[in-house]
């Protein structure tokens, strides 16, 4: 029986793997439609600020926790705070990852269905109305949606079962560069469209009158979702990192890559939206219902559409690997002989739990909670409640359960980082981040409109 802890093969391998976790559907699917529903440029700027001043410090904190203990998300908190309620932070992260993957795999299944439809030519010559009907009919089919979701989870389990180096790292090393190249090509092409200037203005020009408490909450959730923080994903991933890994530089690299990908995704979508007279607030179906109609009106549209959904599938799988890895690692506990069985078992269990999300657009379309479908409810619960809550607990945990000397040693290991940068990071994690998260939560729970007053 092997109990050896796995490690990334190199510093770059760590970057690729964490990038695969963060740069997924959060940037390519979720970011554009939330921008469209939240007023455009103002949301983007709020998201940018929250990513840099809250997301990155938290990311560094999760990196430190994982590398310091060398353990999975659950054992990390149990080791550092053995008789403390903070132990539940790890369990909260694992449960949240499980729930995220239960609805995330639905979108992953859609990516496979649309890639197949693009390759077969079924999406060609569809008007916007026809494209929307096609999307609605496709996801309303229980057999197609459930089959695609199961296939997506099986592909995910196949890679995670092979382990950290031979599975996740090896696939991420070619998947992430390919994703960036494809997205860059599509963005450059999109900028040649007639509506490019209007699309850029919508994405980047801020209108802060549109910002309210809900906008900030959604931007906060998106910042955490985009960096995979708040659910201890990065605790587990950094437990495989060497002491030579520069954690602050790695965190900033990942954040900048994520912002860059989100920006590219916006530049791919919004110029086409405005060029062909579509609405930017179409919602979660923006990519599936609108993009095929946009590409159909472009030169080489069929080829570009296939390229986009190849990219989209890459993005979906890269994040799914990390979500399943966190769950598997928590139960394998370093015993690699159990990895294969655990990967397939949890993939099947997630599929079963995700069935109601899959059927939210078909048989269970009338099932709602507070006006939200089952799918949207799980999305809202994980992105806007559990992830910020997990981030708050991590902010409270780090300065209270780990000595400042230990934090400095991990922060500076593998780098020439100065004390001033460490002091800034420590202050952001101990004071700024928890206060900011609490203000957003209180504003939403009690309707105080503090953020509206602040921006007004």
Strand order of the largest sheet: 1-2
How many structural domains does the protein architecture include? 1
Total E-strand runs: 2
User: What is the beta-strand fraction?
Assistant: under 5%
Q: Can you say what the CATH homologous superfamily is?
A: Hydantoin permease
Spell the H/E element sequence: HHHHHHHHHHHHHHHEEHHHH
Poorly predicted parts: none
CATH class identity: Mainly Alpha
Radius of gyration: 21 Å
CATH topology: Hydantoin permease
Average per-residue pLDDT, rounded, comes to 83
Helix content: over 70%
Q: Biggest β-sheet: count, sense, barrel?
A: 2 strands, antiparallel
Name of the CATH architecture: Orthogonal Bundle
Structural class determined from secondary elements: mainly alpha
How many helical elements?
19
Distance between the termini: 62 Å
Cα shape: globular
């Amino acid at each position: 029986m092997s109990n050896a802890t796995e490690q990334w093969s190199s510093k770059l391998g760590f970057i690729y793997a964490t990038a695969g976790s963060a740069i997924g559907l959060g940037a390519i699917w979720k970011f554009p439609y939330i921008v469209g529903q939240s007023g455009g440029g103002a949301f983007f700027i709020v998201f940018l600020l929250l990513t840099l001043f809250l997301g990155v410090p938290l990311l560094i904190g999760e990196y430190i926790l994982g590398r310091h203990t060398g353990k999975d998300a659950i054992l990390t908190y149990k080791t550092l705070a053995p008789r403390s309620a903070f132990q539940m932070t790890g369990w909260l992260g694992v449960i949240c990852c499980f729930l995220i993957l239960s609805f995330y795999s639905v979108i992953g299944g859609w990516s496979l269905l649309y890639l197949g439809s693009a390759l077969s030519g079924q999406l060609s010559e569809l008007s916007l109305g026809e494209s929307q009907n096609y999307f609605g009919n496709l996801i309303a089919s229980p057999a197609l949606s459930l089959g695609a979701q199961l296939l997506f989870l099986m592909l995910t389990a196949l890679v995670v079962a092979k382990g950290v180096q031979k599975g996740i790292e090896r696939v991420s090393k070619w998947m992430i560069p390919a994703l960036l190249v494809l997205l860059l090509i599509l963005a450059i092409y999109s900028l040649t469209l007639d509506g490019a200037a209007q699309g850029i203005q919508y994405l980047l020009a801020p209108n802060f009158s549109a910002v309210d408490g809900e906008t900030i909450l959604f931007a906060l959730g998106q910042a955490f979702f985009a960096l995979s923080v708040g659910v201890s994903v990065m605790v587990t991933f950094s437990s495989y990192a060497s002491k030579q890994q520069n954690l602050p530089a790695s965190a900033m690299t990942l954040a900048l890559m994520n912002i860059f990908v989100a920006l590219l995704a916006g530049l791919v979508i919004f110029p086409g939206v405005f060029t062909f007279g579509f609405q930017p607030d179409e919602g979660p179906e923006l990519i599936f219902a609108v993009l095929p109609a946009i590409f159909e009106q472009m030169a080489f549209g069929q080829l570009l559409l296939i390229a986009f959904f190849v990219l989209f599938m890459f993005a979906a799988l890269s994040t799914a690997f990390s979500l399943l890895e966190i769950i598997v690692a928590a139960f394998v506990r370093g015993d690699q002989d159990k990895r294969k069985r655990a990967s397939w078992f949890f993939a099947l269990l997630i599929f079963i739990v995700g069935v109601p999300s899959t059927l939210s657009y078909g048989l269970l379309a009338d099932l709602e909670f507070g006006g939200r479908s089952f799918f949207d409810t799980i999305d809202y619960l994980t992105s806007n409640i559990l992830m910020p809550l997990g981030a708050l607990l991590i902010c409270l945990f780090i300065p209270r359960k780990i000595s400042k000397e230990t934090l400095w040693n991990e922060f500076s290991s593998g780098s020439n980082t100065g004390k001033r940068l460490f002091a800034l990071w420590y202050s952001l994690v101990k004071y700024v981040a928890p206060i900011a998260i609490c203000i957003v939560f209180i504003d939403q729970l009690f309707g105080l409109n503090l953020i509206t007053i602040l921006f007004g």
